[in-house]
Design brief:
- The radius of gyration is 25 Å and the shape is globular.
- It has one helix at residues 2-21, and strands at residues 31-42, 48-59, 65-78, 81-98, 101-112, 117-133, 137-151, 158-172, 177-188, 191-206, 211-222, 233-244.
- The chain has 245 residues and is mainly beta.
């Protein structure tokens, strides 16, 4: 009788143990993103101070539609004289058509005091293709038409059609380090000689489960500045501490 009772008890507990062993994993987060910031100070013969703030958010419900937004603010001064003041925002929505092909709609915003751009808005739509799409390597190209609205000091807002083309690349070089690169150009259809190109390349390294350090080189090139006193090219080398959520 004792052996029969132990057998019945074992059979009764077995399904419960099986259910616990097969418990479904928690669903992936729909929203992911990060906040970041960095500051650099020098003193002595030259006093300089620069800082940057970054933010990005991704909504990915693991369907065909992905929403992304990111923003960055750079500011710097030398001997109490402002030398850098730039804000960029990108809002983008992607929809996968099939396989690696997707359509997208996005709005870009730029304010750059030293490029004498009070504002530049560029709503764009187009088509993209993921040339490589693995966990370790991602490479995509995209392009499409849209519009551009630019305001410069002392001038009326200029309006034009626009064409854009760009690519982005990401490579995991280890379990904690990733290289990123991106290049994008927008041309005004009223004057294809007037374009804005943004380039970036960076290395991100994890230092904790939700904390990263990102070192990045940024290059912004405006082929036709508002006047001859404004340089076409602006570069920045920034280090950012990033907290993910």
């Amino acid at each position: 009788m004792l052996k029969r009772g132990l057998l019945l008890l074992t059979l009764a507990l077995a399904p419960a143990q099986f259910v616990r062993g097969q418990a479904p994993q928690a669903p992936p987060d729909v929203y992911t993103g990060s906040f970041g910031g960095g500051i650099a100070l020098t003193g002595g013969n030259t006093d300089t101070k620069t800082f940057n703030l970054t933010f990005d958010l991704v909504r990915d419900p693991k369907t065909k539609n992905v929403f992304k937004t990111k923003a960055a603010y750079l500011r710097g001064n030398q001997n109490d004289v402002l030398t850098l003041d730039r804000t960029t925002i990108n809002i983008r929505d992607e929809y996968t058509l099939s396989g690696r092909t997707f359509v997208f709609g996005q709005v870009d915003y730029l304010r750059d005091q030293f490029k004498q751009i009070i504002f530049l808005w560029a709503p764009i739509g187009g088509l993209g293709y993921k040339l490589i799409n693995t966990d370790a390597t991602k490479l995509e190209a995209r392009g499409g038409p849209g519009g551009i609205f630019e305001k410069n000091p002392g001038k009326e807002t200029s309006k034009s059609g626009a064409l854009t083309a760009g690519e982005s690349f990401q490579q995991k070089v280890s379990s904690t380090a990733t290289i990123t690169e991106a290049l994008a150009t927008i041309w005004k259809t009223k004057d294809f000689g007037d374009s804005l190109t943004n380039f970036s390349v960076g290395l991100t390294t994890s230092i904790a489960s939700k904390v990263e350090v990102k070192v990045e080189f940024l290059d912004s090139y405006k082929s036709k500045p508002p006047n001859a006193l404004v340089k076409k090219n602006d570069t920045a080398f920034v280090t950012t501490f990033v907290v993910k959520f």
